Amino acid sequence: MKRKRPAALRGGEEAAAAALKRGPWTPEEDEVLARFVAREGCDRWRTLPRRAGLLRCGKSCRLRWMNYLRPDIKRCPIADDEEDLILRLHRLLGNRWSLIAGRLPGRTDNEIKNYWNSHLSKKLIAQGIDPRTHKPLTAAADHSNAAAAVAATSYKKAVPAKPPRTASSPAAGIECSDDRARPVDGGGDFAAMVSAADAEGFEGGFGDQFCAEDAVHGGFDMGSASAMVGDDDFSSFLDSLINDEQLGDLFVVEGNDHEHGNGEIGHGDVMESKQ
DNA sequence: AATCGTAGCAACCGCCGTACA
DNA sequence: TTGTACGGCGGTTGCTACGAT
Fold this sequence. Notes:
- By secondary structure, this protein is mainly α.
- Among the domains are: 27-69, Arc Repressor Mutant, subunit A; 80-136, Arc Repressor Mutant, subunit A, CATH 1.10.10.
- It is 49% helix and 0% strand.
- It contains 15 helices and no strands.
- The relative contact order is 0.11.
- The chain binds a DNA duplex through residues 1-5, 7, 10-12, 15, 22-25, 44-46, 57-60, 62-64, 66-68, 95-98, 109-111, 113-115, 117-119, 153-154, 156-157, 160, 162-168, 177, 179.
- Keywords: DNA-binding, Nucleus, Repeat, Transcription, Transcription regulation.
């Protein structure tokens, strides 16, 4: 659906190396890629296009597969409960799209990211909520101006902090290095979060560990967590956050409308409640 | 009917972490 | 220990579709 920038002018050594095709994928290319992956697996994206006879860079093939061709991809619109889950997870994890996608079977990080940027962030803004911090925009303005809050996406580089990235590991079924097929990898000062949560029923614990700015801006240190707990633990923890009825209360800020009905985003603000 | 503005989203880019020689 | 290759992630771009004028 695009790309007219000459590859040679932009980093991408792969694309620059040869006259590789860019832009929208054709049905024929899709079929070639899908057949090849089904037959051979996708353990080496770099060499896959050559082996499959595609004039694409490995990254492009990987992206196409991950975001479009995987058989488990859901093509239906994001449902209300999924939207609700995205909101909760974003509040907890910030722009960790791959982590969020890991909790939504059949959804890709790209899809969720797009949905957030085109729908949810605007929805939150319309309700006077800062999509970055999930705090009321007026409160957010105490720290940064509202305009910055509206420009919800460009903060990562200012405060870089990423979860540890595990190397590729084969997923079940077709052998692909697909993060979304694995349990979500670790996140945050998890041990402290868990202990705080255990001691206080989450309430309070998150206030310390999840200063809104830190959490949403990446201060949520994924690195320390994976050293202390396993993926399964973190996955279970997220499940508990997602499913626990307690959490429903936790997400409701004092004085906020507790109702989720009528299409409103009715979550409260766990960060705000600690202020 | 033509033009303009905007929303949605597929695809690309640069960067970073991990694996391995 | 260092350098290189590769995979993966989040941010950004820009094309397409569609509604408004």
